[in-house]
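Progress against Task 2.4 (sequence-to-structure conversion) is shown through the following example record, which the project officer requested during the mid-term review.
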Amino acid sequence: MRIGYDAKRFFHNNTGLGNYSRDLVRILSEYFPENSYYLYNTKPSEKYSFLLNKKNTFERLPTSFLGKKLKSIWRMLWVNEQIQKDEIDIFHGLSGEIPIGMPKNIKSVVTIHDLIFVRYPHLYSFFDRKIHFLKFKYAAQKADCVIAISEQTKQDIVQFLKINPEKIQVIYQGCSNIFKDRFSSEEKESIREKLNLPDEFILNVGTIEERKNALTIVKAIKDLEIKLVLIGRKTKYYTQIENYVREYGIEDKIIHLQGISQRELAIIYQLASIMIYPSIFEGFGIPIIEALFSKTPVITTNSGVFPEAGGPDSIYINPEDEKELEQKIKFLLHNPEICNSIAEKGYKFAQKFTDQNIAQQLISLYAQL
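Structure tokens generated for the chain above:
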């Protein structure tokens, strides 16, 4: 098969959508090297080009003067000419979009990660909400198949976009292989010293924004003898955390890290005592999977997608109840044997998110189309 991808996020997004795109193309090119994979990119970028499998993965860029100048129009409309020229069998939009007016002889798939902009409109501008909705609605209607990254997202696509559930297939996403590696004690201690991390700490990973709800963790540890490591980009929401920390004089309990490498992050997961993810809502929740593969016990939200990602042995809490979270943290810290058991069971559950399983589901879907 000759498979094309909307690769804007592959080359130009450093976090969630970019990681999903890069992992998907990587695992398919590794497990099914007999296919050809074409990545349609809006502009040159050296940052992730090295990830391309030179034997079966090919980057495509605008070649015309107008295509280079009007990149968004090329991506949504003019790219069709290049897709036809490459004789693509399947086109896969990796982030909720497909080109307008795709040739009817080319089958299409679109992945929709979440509809948070519909569920929590106050987190987005009016203009962004309308544009996102129109793009996602068009893609879901026109594509031959819609991939939802969780059952929760599938339910939202049916509810908000009015798409027939039979058209939607749930294929979970995994995480980078670096989080599946085991690191030596020497490697861990080197990172601990480099980043000045304590012997024992709890961890939260993700953009520090209102929806991710890190302030609840800060409140939960106010009276505990444990430090919190926050890893992620700050938004204006971080001011609420700073104000709370200052009010209660717990500045020494909070460590913020940003701009670390994936290898360093993977080691930090393995150093952490607990990973806490009290997000209000997600399409999936990759940090949970990263923690499970790292054999780090997880405390997360008791509703929505989180039990799907965390499995039957993670600890679940009301994300707005800091007292409940405080009790769960104390319980795990005071019961290391239970903590270790949860970590081992979580690691076994995470095997459903392995590269091989995901690649097989994707290629089976393509073959059916």
